[in-house]
């Protein structure tokens, strides 16, 4: 964990904060711990050493992904392991919103609600690839760019 903190340029933590990390990490198995470290290093959207609550969430997410059917699908490009593929919807010409569809990977097909993305669309809407980004991050990026564009056009 210290190595990871150094990796993100962090050195010392206040005692209270360090204790928070310890409480969270103590709940994890060694394997989960290693997965979280790897996840933090490999995810380009994680640009800072995760705060304790973020660390907790990452741990939960990775734990859950492994647990639900024994298959790891953290690597799914389309849904980022969540089972949901986001789409941007243009509503009433002006409003932009995001909708989630079910992914074709095991994370998606294990959900028993929602419309399958690849039934509705033949391919993903944004085909650009950004190193270190999974598709939901790209959609999110485009979404915020669109909001910004609309604001500027007002
Ligand atoms: Zn998926």
Characterise this structure.
This protein has 2 domains: 1-72; 76-154, no CATH class. 48% of the residues lie in helices and 10% in strands. The protein has 7 helices and 2 strands, in the order ααααββααα. It has a two-stranded antiparallel sheet. β1 and β2 form a beta hairpin. Residues 69-73 have low confidence and may be disordered.
Placed side by side, the strands forming the largest sheet appear as: 1-2
How many separate domains make up the residues? 2
Estimated structural class: mainly alpha
Bound molecules: zinc ion
Describe the largest sheet.
2 strands, antiparallel
Count up the helices. Answer: 7
As residue ranges, the low-confidence spans are: 69-73
Shape: globular
Q: SSE order in H/E notation?
A: HHHHEEHHH
> What proportion of the residues form beta strands (DSSP E)?
5-15%
- How far is the N terminus from the C terminus? 47 Å
Determine Rg (CA atoms, Å).
18 Å
Name the descriptors:
globular, 7 helices, single chain, mainly alpha, 154 residues, 2 strands, binds zinc ion
Write the layout of secondary structure elements.
Elements (H helix, E strand, L loop, with lengths): L1 H6 L7 H12 L3 H13 L9 H16 L16 E8 L3 E8 L3 H4 L7 H4 L14 H19 L1
Antiparallel strand pairs: 1-2
The structure holds zinc ion.
A few lines on this structure:
With 154 residues, this protein is mainly alpha-helical. 48% of the residues lie in helices and 10% in strands.
């Amino acid at each position: 964990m210290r190595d990871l903190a150094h990796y993100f340029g962090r050195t010392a933590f206040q005692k209270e904060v360090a204790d928070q990390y310890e409480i969270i990490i103590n709940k994890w198995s060694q394997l989960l711990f290693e997965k979280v470290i790897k996840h933090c290093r490999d995810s380009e959207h994680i640009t800072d050493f995760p705060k304790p609550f973020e660390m907790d969430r990452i741990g939960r997410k990775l734990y859950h992904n492994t647990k639900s059917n024994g298959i790891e699908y953290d690597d799914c490009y389309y849904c980022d392991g969540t089972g949901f593929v986001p789409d941007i919807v243009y509503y009433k010409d002006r409003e932009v919103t995001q909708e989630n569809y079910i992914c074709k990977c095991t994370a998606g097909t294990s959900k028993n609600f929602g419309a399958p993305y690849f039934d509705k669309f033949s391919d993903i809407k944004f085909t650009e690839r950004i190193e270190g980004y999974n598709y939901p991050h790209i959609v999110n990026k485009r979404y915020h760019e669109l909001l910004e564009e609309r604001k500027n056009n007002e």
